[in-house]
Amino acid sequence: MSRVIVELSGYRWMWVIALFDLPTDSQAARRQYAQFRKALIRDGFQMMQFSVYVRHASSRENAEVHAIRVQQAIPPDGEVRVLIITDKQFARMRIFWGKRRIPPPEPPAQLSLF
Question: Which CATH number characterizes residue 68's domain?
């Protein structure tokens, strides 16, 4: 039996990036912040840096589903932005470090079908 490996285009795979600025000036606000952050993690997002979470999506349509889930989890106060970009665009990201150099975690490998 022959094995076929299919590489999907880097323009089909998408990244959903949630950038947020939520208040933490009261106990209720901190609770809402924690609930929002937990909702992102339950939906498969990972922290990229403080208040920036990313999630890989298999298509633009799938990315839109996750963007809507972010919208539904937004607390009443604060600001949340969602950016959807292709895997190719994400790969072109330039990362700069100051004196403390800690390499970022490796992005997930592209899915291979066989």
Answer: 3.30.70.240
